[in-house]
Design brief:
Strand order of the largest sheet: 2-1-5-8-10-12-14-16-18-20
Largest sheet: 10 strands, mixed
Radius of gyration: 21 Å
Strand content: 35-45%
Distance between the termini: 51 Å
Structural class: alpha/beta
Number of strands: 20
Number of domains: 2
Length: about 450
Amino acid sequence: MDLKEKLTSSFLAFENEGNLDLDSNTHAIRLEAIKSFEAHGFPSKTIEDWKYTNLKPLLKHDYCLFPRTKNDVGFKNIKKYLLNDVETYTLVFIDGVFSSFLSTTTHDDCDVCVLSSALNRPKYKMVVDNYFNKIANKNESVSQLNTAFTIEGAFINVPKNTIVPKPIQIIYFSTGSEKEVLLQPRNLVIVGENSHVQIIERHQNLSDETTLTNAVTEIFVNKRAVVDYYKIQNDTKNSSLIDSTYVSQKMQSVASVNTYSFGGKLTRNNLEFYHEGEGITSNLNGISILNSNQHVDNTTLVNHKFPNCESHELYKGIYSDRSSGVFNGKVIVNKEAQKTNAFQQNNNILIDDGATINAKPQLEIFADDVKCSHGCTIGQLDESALFYMQSRGIPKKEAKALLLYAFGNDVVEKIKIPQLKTKIAKFIAEKLNVELGFDL
């Protein structure tokens, strides 16, 4: 039995266990989703958007779909993965199960809790029904699979005119209680008018066992709201992640999604923005630093539907050994979206001959009064700059690291949480295998 058959045959038993509220709209949505996945299966390289990312090696494993074994995980086991030097609200999930002991939730100024809890409370049930699965791509079979098997995840609901006083951390841990496990977390984020929130998301394997995470996040940004979302991807060599994030923005809102990919066997980031009003700003930033046989695929879409909006997209990649990267970015400017300003840039450095990058920046413009540009560069380190630094007494290894750090620094500078900026800078230094002797 292959993985697709295993999933479809397990769905009925999954439903019979009463996962999530069967009286809500979620039940019908999941039934439609499993039918869609059964019809289409996992995406293959014959699909244009998956041309450079091969899922077949991941699908050969006999994944445990619903981990049962409980491992005792304490704060000492996860401390180094948390942002500890600043106060935060924290949602921690262990093998897909919410850990109240390790989490700090709130219902004061805003709601920072879990999806299952929201569905079991009449106060939030209507909110979830109104937003759940409204913008997730129905043509993306991996998102449909997640919808079908949604059990748990983060639920963040920020009322209007609220500045969330602390960043929110969402962290999913896999303990290795099963040799091979498939996890499917689901996040729902709703930000009201004139509100502001900062969110950090991370998926982390605590063992060397094989893990495949298929995550979906839906973010709704209402009028004049500001959302800063950070994704940290620095997992183990046997961990793979398919991360699909969908953002819907109302007029005059600002949404930024920043992705930092440093580790994991295979990482696929699907990121889609949809404009639902004028005066919107969307920011998509990312940096990937890979080695060995690691693979990362950043596939993005910004759909401009209204006039006087902006999107700014900057992705950078540093690839060594036999690592590989993909940048597949599409910007659509509909005919009604006059006065659009859309910028898209992808820059890459290949350190070794075995490293590869496939880049495909795309613009589809149907309006005639716009400012749109895209570009892509693929190259190596500037040998003259490297020689100059060595001639000033800087060892070659440190000089090389400094140049690479400088290459990606403009992405790091976009981080608005100082403690997170320091943490990301340290990740970069570790990935470049050097101690950078200056204040990060």
